[in-house]
Amino acid sequence: MTKTTMPTASKTEDIKKDLHRVALAATSSHHLMSEVAKLLHERMLKYNWVGFYMLEQAPPAGQPPVLLLGPFQGAMTPHTRIPLNQGICGAAASTGKTVVVDDVSKDSRYLACSVETKSEIVVPVFVRGKVVGELDIDSHFPSAFTAADRELVEYCASLVGKHLETSRS
After folding, report:
1. What's the rounded Cα separation, in Å, for the pair 13 and 133?
2. Domain limits of the chain?
3. What are the phi and psi torsion angles at 107 (to 5°)?
4. In whole angstroms, what is the distance from residue 132 CA to residue 86 CA?
5. SS3 labels along 149-165
6. How far apart are CA 31 and CA 139, in angstroms?
7. What is the Cα–Cα distance from 42 to 131, expressed in whole angstroms?
8. How far apart are CA 117 and CA 34, in angstroms?
9. Coil, strand, or helix at residue 56?
10. CATH class label, 28-56+65-167
């Protein structure tokens, strides 16, 4: 397996085929998220931290839901619980829109995890039209995420959302 800096059309298609196979073989949504994080982290050079955050299902009475750290690949993060009104992750979950930050040092929403992180992409995961979590990727490179990266990461989030949807039916 070789890592690539920027996904080419054929590289993206190869990764999508592998992701599709992983999704078909997944024994649970947690297993699928673990495998997606592992595959992206191993195959994409600029994807230095890849992980899922899932919306807390039953927050304590009177408390707003938070994002809970799920399966990930990369260095441990101090951010295992993220309120929806904090960080780039909170922004993506709150708005239901993909957030791409080319330079985290210039975005006041960024919750510092690593001094090496230069850029980030966060893609919401949907089940039946509602945000249930997100796929978060950090890079040690500025402006690491191209339109092709965005499309690939959105595809991954969609796969996980579809798996969650069928497992919650």
Report:
1. 25
2. 28-56+65-167
3. -115, 115
4. 16
5. HHHHHHHHHHHHHHHHH
6. 24
7. 27
8. 21
9. coil
10. alpha beta
Angle at 159 between CA 153 and CA 165, to 5 degrees: 135
Residues present in the chain in total: 169
Q: Within the chain, where are the H helices? A: 9-25, 29-43, 87-95, 147-167
Q: Which two tokens stand for residue 114?
A: 């690593």
User: Using one digit for the tens of pLDDT, what is the confidence trace for 90-122?
Assistant: 999 999 999 999 998 897 677 777 778 999 999
36-91: pLDDT as tens digits: 999 999 999 999 999 999 999 877 788 888 999 999 999 999 899 998 888 899 99
∠32-34-36 over CA atoms, to 5°? Answer: 65
* pTM: predicted TM-score of the whole model, two decimal places: 0.91
Structure-token pair, residue 138: 């950090």
User: Structure tokens of 118?
Assistant: 């230069």
Query: Six-digit token pair at 101?
Result: 């930050």
Rounded Cα gap, residues 126 and 129, in angstroms: 6
Identify the H or E element spanning 72.
strand 66-73
